[in-house]
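Hey all, sorry for the wall of text incoming. These are the two entities for the joint prediction.
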Amino acid sequence: MARLAAGDPDPLEGLYERYGAMAYALALRITRDGSAAEDVVQETFLGVWRNADRYELGRGSVRTWLLSIVHHRAIDLLRRRRPTTVLPERDDAPPEILTMPDVWQDLAARLDREAIQVALATIPTAQREAIELAYFGGHTQVEIAARLDLPIGTVKSRQRLGLLALRRALADAGHTNRAGTDGEPRG
Amino acid sequence: MADDRMPPLSCAEVEDLAAGFVLGSLPDAEMAAVRGHLATCTSDHPALAELASVVPALALAVPEAKPAAALGGRILAAARAEVPAREVLSPPPAREPAVRGENLASDRRVVARRDIAAWLRPFRRPAWGLAALAAVLVLVLTALDLQLTGQVSELTAYRAGVEAVLSAAASPGGRLAILNSAATGGPAGLAAVTVDGRVSIAMRNLVPTTGDEVYEAWLIPGSAAPLPVGSFAVGSGQTGTLLASLTNPVADTNVVVAVTREPGPGATTPTLPIIAQGRASPPAS
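and here's what came out:
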C-alpha cells in the first residue's frame, strides 16, 4: 500500500491477484450481472489506487475494507437501477482503519468459504432471508417488510436474531476447525 | 423540501437499530443518524459491535466466481494511465491558500478522525470486543469515507462545470449570467447561454435532492413563459452542473436564467420559489 500511495501502480496487480476473485464473487452475487460486477471490481481497485495515501500500513485488514467497499458500490449500483432511487456519484477510498485487530484474521484463516456457507445454512430460513435481502439485495427493513408482508418489527427481530445465530455458528465452526484433523487443539 | 435529518440518537436507540445498521438496511436518514452518533459517542455499544462482527462473513459466503481474465490487466492499465494525472492533481503545498471548498473535504476528514479517535480512547475490552469494534469501525468509516470522497468528486465536477460555463460565455455571442438567491450564502452560481442554443450551469450551496427531486433550469426571455432547459440532481457536496442544448436557441438578448426545485424531472412550469436567477448578458469586453 505504501508503494501505491507513492504513485507506483504495480502493487495493484498483487492486490488484485489476491482479492480480485473474492471481490468479483461478492459483486456478482449482489448485481447478478457479470459486466456490472466487473465494473464494480474495477472501480473498487482503481479507488484503492487513487486513495492509497489514505491507508495506513499495518492498520486493519485490507481484505475486510476492500470487500466492504465492493459491497457498498455494488449495493449503490443495485439501488440506482431501481427507478425511485437517486444517488450522488461516489469515488472509492480505503476507509481509515485505526489500530484494531481484524476479527477475520484469526477466524477466517481457520474457516474456508464452505464452512461459512454451512454456518449460514444452519440459521433459520426466515432469519437468513431477512439478512440476505438486506445485505445482498440492498433492501431497507421497510422494503423487506412490504415484500414479505410482515410487520417491520418482525423484520428487525429476524435480522438481529439471524446475525446472532450466525455468530454462534461461526464461532462453533472456528472452534471445530481449530481442533484440526488430528483432533488436537492448535495454537 | 423538508430536511430529512433526524434528531441525535441515544445509545439505546442506536442499539435498537444495530441489526439494520450493520446490514445497511435502514433508511438513509437513520443510517446517517447512527453514524453521526458513533462518530462522537464515547460509550460502548456492545450489541452493535457483536452484530457487526458477523457481517464480514457474509461477504465471504458467496459462491466462488472468476472474472474475465482481462479484468486485471484493464485495471492495471487504467491505473498506469493515471500516473501523470496524479502528479497534476496533487494537492497544493500547505503554504498556498487553496479554494475553500478543497480544504473543506480534508478538514472534514480530520474532524471525523479526531471524533472517532476520541470515541475509542476510553474503550477497553477483551480481544473479542476489540475485534468486533474493528468491524463496526469498518462499516462506519467506509460509509463516512465514501460520503466524503463523494463530496470531493462533486467539487471536482463543479470546477469542471464552472470552466465549461466560462468557456461557453467566451464563445462569440455567448452570454453570462451570475445566479444569485435572495438569501445571503444561499444557492449561487454561473450560467452561460450560447447562440447555438447551449446552456451551461454550475451552482453551489444547493440543498441535496432526495428521491426523484431535481433542480430545473429555465430560460425566461423577456415577458414570455419560462422555457425548461434541463434538470440535475444534487448530492451531499451541494453542487450541481448542467450542460444542455436547446432545439430552438433563444436569440433574445434579454433573457433571465432561473433555477427551481422540482419534485421530479420533466416539469413544464416552474414550481416557486425560484432558487436562484440572473440576467444573461455578454461578458464585459
